[in-house]
Amino acid sequence: MGAPGLIISAPSSGSGKTSVTLGLLRALARRGVRVGSAKVGPDFIDPAFHAAASGQACFNLDGWAMRPATLAGLTTHVGAGVDLVVCEGVMGLFDGALTAPDQPDGSTAQLALATGWPVVLVLDGRGMIASAAAVLAGFDRLRPGPGLAGVVFNRVRSSRAQAAIESACRAACPDVALLGFLPPAPALEMKSRHLGLVQACERPDLDAFLDGAAALVEAHLDLDRLCALARPARLSASAPAVPLPPLGQRIALAADAAFAFAYPATLDGWRAAGAEIVPFSPLADQGPDPAADAVYLPGGYPELHAGLLAGNQGFLGGLRAAADRGAALFGECGGYMVLGRGIEDETGTRHAMAGLLGLESSFARRRLHLGYRRAVLECAGALGVVGAVFRGHEFHYASVLAEEGEALFTVSGADGAGLGRCGLCSGTVAGSFVHLIDRDEGVATPP
Predict the structure, then answer these.
(1) Cα separations (Å) of 44 from 203, 258, 399?
(2) What angle separates helix 206-220 from helix 45-54, to the nearest 10 degrees?
(3) Could you say which architecture CATH assigns to the domain 5-228?
(4) Sign (positive/negative) of CA torsion 209, 211, 213, 216?
(5) Where are the beta strands (DSSP E) in 242-310?
(6) What's the whole-number average pLDDT of the chain?
(7) Which strand (E) or helix (H) includes residue 49?
(8) 68-78 and 264-272 are packed helices; what angle lies between their axes, rounded to 10 degrees?
(9) Strand 342-344 relative to strand 358-362, pairing
(10) Domains of the chain: which residue ranges?
């Protein structure tokens, strides 16, 4: 049986659940607790902060995009070798994809029901006193739902407000543990940009920020009572999860501040399947290992470094040389754009990229693309045969100026609505804006 776990959720985004989670992870790690972490749904940035806070890799758990066996395997993996698992939810507790009522929606509530991990709600106390009890009671009693084990109130400004909130909540929800009241802490608000939070690797003040979050929760929350709420997961699996087929036997992985959006579950799955992963830094003008038979360019923020990348001919030449020798090259989102012909930055300046796919992308004409994707493979290669099906997520602001060549996928949304073709492939080079999370069940009929 794995370590006991609990889920930190909230009524909505912006309530402070990430800051609370990070403070909790860092505080427990400083106490000598071996604490593992997980993040509900598709997210790359929060998990990197988790890993920095706890010293352990953070794994995404996704009820929509993952097969049951994958979800069970990763839940088991997260709870192995640690004393406690802290899982951060996504959006509000009941928020997920817009699907049919009988279909998984990827919400935090769905994951709580599947795992059996108790839910601790982070409730923003600004502008409320007795009304906070109504919000708490509604989340505790909404069905179908997991119920609440505890609540943390955030941004509560005065002892008078705290006393009134506490009295109202004890009367309305006597079985929900009141774990503490956090005061406003502007210095601990998370910094954001167009794809979400600024990355952990880009913050020189990261340790000071995490220590500040830990000090805040240690001073104001009952950590012993909170940890005592944790319960072992209902899900378990004996075999490690291998969500995606390895791209090759020796995989060169682009890994730096421009290419940081790789799921640990994907990389660990490749290793479990016998592949070797060799990191390299495009920003340092490193090319992929010449002995690699595959190159993986994950997503990230290459648009913020487009001028530097365009001048790094060791990197771009290394990609072209890998393609010339027949290695499999695969790019997701930002990695896909770099495999293309050029990226137009937010000022309208075009920067030439590898030119291995017929893609021109622009951030001068930004447009949000967001949502779960079911992707059917249209071109055979390192990912598998034509008709292989995957699930993933798309989140970017790039506009496509040109996308010329053979399509990689046919995609649909979480609701089943067709979204047309997506991505490109040319020889052994392929990519798309979809971040792949797991294989889907079965194989689609080829068109």
Answers:
(1) 15, 13, 21
(2) 70
(3) 3-Layer(aba) Sandwich (3.40)
(4) negative
(5) 250-254, 276-280, 294-297
(6) 94
(7) helix 45-54
(8) 100
(9) parallel
(10) 5-228, 250-443
Taking the C-alpha atoms of residue 223 and residue 221, their distance in angstroms, rounded to an integer, is: 6
Q: What is the pLDDT of residues 317-360, one digit of tens each?
A: 999 999 999 999 999 999 999 999 999 999 999 999 999 999 99
Torsion from C-alpha of 349, 426, 326, 311, nearest 10 degrees: 0
Q: What is the pLDDT of residues 394-443, one digit of tens each?
A: 998 899 999 999 999 999 999 999 999 999 999 999 999 999 999 997 54
Summary count for the chain: helices (H), strands (E)? 12, 24
DSSP string, 75-100: HHHHTTT-SEEEEE--SSTT------
176-184 mean pLDDT: 97
**In angstroms, what CA-CA distances link 375 with 197, 339, 439?**
27, 20, 9
Catalytic residue ranges: 333
**Residue partners of 167: CB distance under 8 A and separation at least 6:** none
Rounded Cα distance, 310 and 321, in Å: 16
Q: d(Cα 88, Cα 119) in Å, to the nearest integer?
A: 10
Question: Which of 3.30.565.10, 3.40.50.880, 3.40.50.10540, 3.10.105.10 would CATH assign to domain 250-443?
Answer: 3.40.50.880
Helix axes 159-172, 131-141, angle to 10 degrees: 40
- Rounded to the nearest 10°, the torsion over CA 371, 376, 378, 379 is 100
String of DSSP letters for 331-370: EETHHHHHHSSEEE-TTS-EEE---SSEEEEESTT---EE
5-228 and 250-443: same fold?
yes
Q: How far apart are CA 251 and CA 258, in angstroms?
A: 18
Pairwise CA distance, residues 75 & 61, whole Å: 7
pLDDT score, position 442 = 54
Residues 83-137: tens digit of each pLDDT: 999 999 999 999 999 887 778 899 999 999 999 999 999 999 998 988 999 999 9
Q: Is 202 helix (H, G, I), strand (E, B) or coil?
A: helix
